[in-house]
Amino acid sequence: MNLNRGVILVIVVPRSPLRVAGLVLMSPALALVTVARFQLGNSFSRTPQAKNLVTHGEFANPSTFSGHSFSSDFFLFLERPWLLLLIVPMLILQTIRAHAESRVLEERFGEEYRRYRASTWF
User: Fold this and answer.
1) Is 75 within 8 Å of 22 (Cβ atoms)?
2) Do residues 94 and 68 touch, judged by C-beta distance below 8 A?
3) DSSP codes joined into one string, the chain
4) Could you tell me if residue 1 is inside a domain?
5) In-domain check, residue 33
6) How many domains does the chain have?
7) Which residues span the domain enclosing 95?
8) What would you report as the CA-atom Rg of the chain, rounded to the nearest whole angstrom?
9) How confident is the model at residue 6 (pLDDT cuts 50, 70, 90)?
10) Is 40:66 a contact under the CB 8 Å cutoff?
11) 25-82 pLDDT tens trace
12) Nearby residues of 33 by Cβ (< 8 Å), 6 or more positions away
């Protein structure tokens, strides 16, 4: 008889206010990352590309917002709040990428993209 079948491994970690806060905040951030990726569909890419103009969804740059949120929440969960300092260079790099992406989309979609961009808060 194999007792290993159907056994769920549970890792018990000590609870602390930072860890609980990180976990509580990380859950909705992960959900937002997942929703954003589904909303972007085939238009998601690591490099700025203009496959399609995605005008539906929660945010103008959904994976950026929720990805940074998830990262910062994960740093709290790890009980390493000093890692939050990594968010600054991440934001700088993401801003550079967003500007490049904006130029590519404006070149490809022109006035349609400018109307969309004017209607978003992000």
Assistant:
1) yes
2) yes
3) --TTTTPPP-------HHHHHHHHHHHHHHHHHHHHHHHHGGG--SS---S-----SS-SSHHHHHHHHHHHHHHHHTT-GGGGGGHHHHHHHHHHHHHHHHHHHHHHHTHHHHHHHHT---
4) no
5) yes
6) 1
7) 17-40+55-118
8) 19
9) low
10) no
11) 888 888 887 887 777 776 666 666 677 777 766 555 655 667 788 888 889 888 898 9
12) 63, 66, 67, 70
The residue among 42 and 5 whose pLDDT is bigger is 42
Query: Which pTM does this prediction carry?
Result: 0.64
Task: State the pLDDT at residue 83.
Answer: 92
| Contacts of 110-114 spanning 24+ positions with Cβ under 8 A | 112/53, 113/53
Mean pLDDT of the chain: 78
| The amino acid at 68 | H
